[in-house]
């Protein structure tokens, strides 16, 4: 028998404006089974009024008058309100989560808007944490506008002084007064071979002390008053005078200098031709797709990392408003989300038919039910509870239409 606490939770979330798909997804993430969730929703919506559709006009009018408050509540729950709540689903897809200091980890952020149908801004904080003490090793903060679905490849450079070990990538998306959080395990490995670094315990490179000075972090005896805040200069007091001599090479100036190829991969990072693509590169391709989609697709196909290539092609599909590009995406989930996005852009629910995943397909159909009051898709919903909810809304609309005819 379904627990009262579960039913109470479902009722509360519905009253707050969350749709059934969003509630189901959260409950599944917390360990509830499909059976538990279906029983809870059946308890919330029992009994239905499906059998009342074939009554006489007079009877229907009476039923509508008696149940007006109940119908009003249903409309509040299911139809988009002016103050529709914002709800995000955050997912992280690993691309490269093992790296040495100076290299970068790569991953793809996927943000799915499950609540408000309007575009709004979110703040995204990406951190590498030491799981032993939760200290932040490095972080990257950005602001993005979310409308439906967004997939963004991201790279974070591991600081040179980072010690080998297991770390945690944490991404926090802040919006309104809520947060969406996702994590991935990250492994930092030691630099291979006899490569000189800022953590090898040897005074080498152009260091002024052991693993400090030069291109490494400042040594403790370097005077703060002499610091010119330029990471590419050595700040020392010689014979009582401050000197700021240039560090050559300098890790962090964006120039790949002599002897930096192995010790400063952030300056000497590989290019797109080597199979690495940044989020900025994909955004450039997206802009190119507006005027030259064929050339943009060629550039996407140069990317060797499958997830990034799929994300790149999805951007072209969005710009060109064409599902034909979705077909070329290899990853099934990214392809399904591409179809869903194009269906919403073109306001064509038939494109939802091309989606292979039942969950994403149902979410695509429900967008048309909730936003467009399009109940022609009710019979296509695979989830029993969603199909019942869709049918219920259709019945409510028929009753309202019949009442309007009587009044006329």
If you had to describe this structure to a student in words, what would you say it looks like?
The protein has a five-stranded mixed beta sheet with strand order 2-8-7-4-5, with no helix packed on it. α4 crosses α11 (384-407) and α6 (279-289) packs parallel to α8. The chain contains eleven helices and ten strands. It has helices at residues 4-15, 20-29, 34-45, 57-66, 68-78, 279-289, 293-301, 306-320, 332-346, 358-372, 384-407, and strands at 88-96, 98-99, 104-113, 120-129, 136-146, 149-157, 165-175, 178-188, 233-238, 241-246.
Structural class: alpha+beta
- Can you give the helix content as a percent range? 25-40%
Rg: 28 Å
Strand content: 15-25%
Alpha carbon gap, first and last residue: 47 Å
Low-pLDDT residue intervals, each spanning 5 or more residues: 47-84, 270-277
**How many strand segments?**
10
Order of adjacent strands in the largest pleated sheet: 2-8-7-4-5
Shape: elongated
Tally the helices: 11
Order of helices and strands: HHHHHEEEEEEEEEEHHHHHH
């Amino acid at each position: 028998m379904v627990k009262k606490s579960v039913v109470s939770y479902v009722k509360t979330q519905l009253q707050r404006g969350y749709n059934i798909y969003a509630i189901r997804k959260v409950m599944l993430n917390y360990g509830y089974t499909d059976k538990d969730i279906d029983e809870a929703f059946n308890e919330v919506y029992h009994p239905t009024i499906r059998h009342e559709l074939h009554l006489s006009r007079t009877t229907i009018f009476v039923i509508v008058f008696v149940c007006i408050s109940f119908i009003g509540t249903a409309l509040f729950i299911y139809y988009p309100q002016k103050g529709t709540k914002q709800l995000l689903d955050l997912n992280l897809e690993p691309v490269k989560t093992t790296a040495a200091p100076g290299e970068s980890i790569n991953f793809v952020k996927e943000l799915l808007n499950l609540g408000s149908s309007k575009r709004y801004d979110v703040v995204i904080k990406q951190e590498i944490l030491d799981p032993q003490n939760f200290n932040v090793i490095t972080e990257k903060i950005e602001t993005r506008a979310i409308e439906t679905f967004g997939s963004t490849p991201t790279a974070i450079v591991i600081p040179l002084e980072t010690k080998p070990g297991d770390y945690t990538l944490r991404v926090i998306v802040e919006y309104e007064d809520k947060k969406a959080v996702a994590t991935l395990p990250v492994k930092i490995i030691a630099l291979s071979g006899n490569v000189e670094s800022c953590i090898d315990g040897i005074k080498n490179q152009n260091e002024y002390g052991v693993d400090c000075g030069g291109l490494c972090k400042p040594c403790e005896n370097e005077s703060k008053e002499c610091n010119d805040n330029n990471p590419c200069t050595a700040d020392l007091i010689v014979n009582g005078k401050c000197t700021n001599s240039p560090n050559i090479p300098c890790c962090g100036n964006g120039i790949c200098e002599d002897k930096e190829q192995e010790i400063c991969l952030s300056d000497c990072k590989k290019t797109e031709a080597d199979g690495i693509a940044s989020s900025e590169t994909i955004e450039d391709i997206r802009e190119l797709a507006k005027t030259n989609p064929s050339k943009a697709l060629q550039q996407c196909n140069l990317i060797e990392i499958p997830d990034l290539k799929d994300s790149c092609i999805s951007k072209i599909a969005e710009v060109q408003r064409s599902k034909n590009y979705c077909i070329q995406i290899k990853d099934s989930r990214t392809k399904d989300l591409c179809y869903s996005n194009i269906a919403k852009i073109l306001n064509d629910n038939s494109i939802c038919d091309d989606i292979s995943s039942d969950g994403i397909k149902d979410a695509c159909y429900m967008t048309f039910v909730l936003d467009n009051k399009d109940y022609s898709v009710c019979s296509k919903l695979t989830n029993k509870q969603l199909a019942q909810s869709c049918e219920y809304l259709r019945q409510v609309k028929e009753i309202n239409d019949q009442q309007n005819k009587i009044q006329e």
